[in-house]
Amino acid sequence: MFEEIKTSNDGELVINVGPQHPATHGVLHLLITLNGETITKLEPNLGYIHRSIEKMCESLSYRQFIYSTSRMDYLSSHMNNHACAMIVEKGLQVEIPERAEVIRVLISELTRLASHQLWWGAMAMDLGALSPFFYSFREREVITDIMEETCGARLTMNYIVPGGLMADIHPNFVKRVKDFIIQFNSKIDEYDQLVTGNIIFQNRMKNVGYLSPEDAISYGTTGPVARGSGVSCDIRKLYPYSAYNKVKFEEILETGGDSFARYLVRIKEMKQSISIIEQLIDNIPEGDFQAKTKAVLKLPKGEFYQRVETARGELGVYLVSEGGTTPYRIKFRSPGFSNLSALNHMVKGHKIGDLVAIMGTLDLVIPDIDR
Amino acid sequence: MGNEELIVKLQELFPAASIIQGNDWPEISFESGADFLSTIDVLKSDQTLAFDYLFCETCVDWKTHFTMVYHLDSTRFRHNIVLKYKLDRETPEIDSLSFVYRTSEQHEREIFDLFGIIFKGHPNLKRILLTEDWVGYPLRKDYDDPINMIKL
Amino acid sequence: MDVIITEPSTPFPGSVHEVPGGGIVLSTLDDVINWARSNSLWPLVFGTSCCAIEMMSAASAKYDFSRFGFEVARATPRQADVIIIAGTIVNKMAPVLKRLFDQMPDPKYVIAMGACATSGGPFFYNTYSVVKGADHVIPVDVYVAGCPPRPEALLHALITLQEKIKSGLTRDQIRAQFQEDGK
Ligand code: SF4
């Protein structure tokens, strides 16, 4: 099953990292070829959590298949649901009430915050700092509580459905989000003080895992990984969907291309998310939260594609319909899968200790890679 | 370029291909046997097209044949096209793009794993998601697995 | 204000006999060992998918399972007592899980967290790669329902496991006891 640890004549050593390893954040298996302590080649071996979601979706109706997508990238489950809901709406050509659109964006940005918080804690933990993990979970719990009140679930929400939302927001939602924003604004600075300026942290992050803009494009990386290399790829900005064209925000670009740049992108993105939430939270339009749709949805024959910016990058859903009640073929272009393909390129020539730091800044979610 | 301009331009470049306007983007389809690598080369290196970013690569099993579907984006001009290439079912073979777009190395391994398409020139074509000894290609429409698959 | 001291749900096993100058505790060695064992269970850091996030929540500040003696999460199976299967187990992972379980020193315990580990959950039908329940691979002591279960549910499962260990009974004995109680 695993390649045995072996040495070749020229002193190269192959070791396994994973599938059960705390720094891989799940069940990723990496075959690493080492020369001394230097990585010469890295080959990911995936599939330890390949749950055949694409096959399963072929036999689920257009209302049902959404739930399986919140289990794909569970840290951005709203964005996954959003992409799927939008693709069904695109096929049916239904107009979504304004209120639903705004709430969708609000709740997606909250999810992005929660996801980045978790990334921040987990990445710092990879580098050996345990307290950031507890700091980040402290704030994350507030978001999950808000979500729970409105969506009824803490993690796998399935709140965004074709036609709008599953239910209206909870009466407390607006107030609690506002409270959270005030509280969290000061916490971001705390994050900065605790980690960003730390000299050990900087030494481990700067000039490590360099990815040039050309490679970032060629490897198909998206999200904070590509933006850390200065490639503009924010779907919210380039191909605005939902209510994103109504809000003002910046696409964060860093030109460093190293781990530290990717770190900065995510930290700054949190501030942008807060600003989006601040712009929308007082302006949720009145009205319905759902458009009228039939109980059984039938998409016309054809092919549809929808791109969405999740916390990890671009999620694409490609749906082929034969006119029935279930998709003929569905493909999820997950951000993690492409981002991972750049890992081999990024770690080459680095010491094995840096692998963890580089992988931490890729923010991999393994079920998202394997689907 | 807008979609209409793109279609005109593509028709000029590839008179043999069929080009239609899809739901979002122009769709250009080739029959099996067309020279695929040179097509990609033109699409990538043409100064007014510059499709340098392959954001989705997948395959669809149409029971009688396979269709490879490539979604291309240009980071310079921000226009997209969908590229389709028909493969026949008995010998599904296509040139690998792994040296043109590095991302496709992994995508092609996944497609090989789940559909059994052979990518000519791929540096490391083996199963990526399933175990090496897996029999069959699960995303094909005729795949059946009475042991693992419980049908509703 | 009266302070009400509640009995700990599972006090130290044994009876105290008052004698001049103090007391003597009478107990069986088995009981004492089980008592000690149950209060210091080290979980293995093992999570395959979504449920792992809820396990992390249970470990972090708000829910904090270290209050019940679970704080020392170990990254290697050789130092762990209990494995919390948080997430789906697929065919490729199953041999790895078995191997992890085999590497753990006895006595070892297993908690199946979430619908996936219990039965395949949302991935039961029409999937070709999911193991329909982790108990096809390794024996499970406690099952937790939910997708994902709340951290409280995981805490409850952990406490249930402690009780099981303290009772020192096997699964069949516990079942028989339940049936007797039912009558
Ligand atoms: S039970 Fe639900 S939340 Fe848990 S791993 Fe399975 S799908 Fe994910």
Description:
The complex is a heterotrimer of chains A (371), B (152) and C (183). In chain A, 47% of the residues lie in helices and 13% in strands. Chain A is of the alpha+beta class. Chain A is globular. The two termini of chain A are 21 Å apart. Chain B contains 3 helices and 7 strands. Chain B is elongated, with a radius of gyration of 17 Å. In chain B, 38% of the residues are buried. Chain C is elongated. Chain C has a 4-stranded parallel β-sheet with strand order 3-4-5-6. Chain C has a two-stranded antiparallel sheet with strand order 1-2. In chain C, helix 1 packs antiparallel against helix 5 and helix 2 packs across helix 5. The chains are: A alpha+beta (371), B alpha/beta (152), C alpha/beta (183). The complex binds iron/sulfur cluster (SF4). Iron/sulfur cluster binds next to helix 2 and helix 4 of chain C.
Reconstruct the topology from this structure.
The complex is a heterotrimer of chains A (about 375), B (about 150) and C (about 180).
Chain A: E1 6-7, E2 12-17, E3 29-35, E4 38-45, H1 53-57, H2 65-69, H3 77-92, H4 98-126, H5 131-151, E5 160-161, E6 164-165, H6 173-196, H7 199-205, H8 213-218, H9 223-227, H10 235-238, H11 259-281, E7 302-309, E8 314-321, E9 329-333, H12 335-341, H13 343-347, H14 352-362, H15 366-370
Antiparallel strand pairs in A: 1-2, 2-3, 3-4, 5-6, 7-8, 8-9
Chain B: H1 3-13, E1 18-21, E2 26-30, H2 36-45, E3 53-61, E4 65-73, E5 80-88, E6 93-95, H3 104-115, E7 118-120
Parallel strand pairs in B: 2-5, 6-7
Antiparallel strand pairs in B: 1-2, 3-4, 4-5
Chain C: E1 15-19, E2 22-26, H1 29-38, E3 43-44, H2 50-59, E4 82-86, H3 94-103, E5 109-113, H4 114-119, E6 142-144, H5 151-167, H6 171-182
Helix pairs in contact in C: 1-5, 2-5
Bound molecules: iron/sulfur cluster.
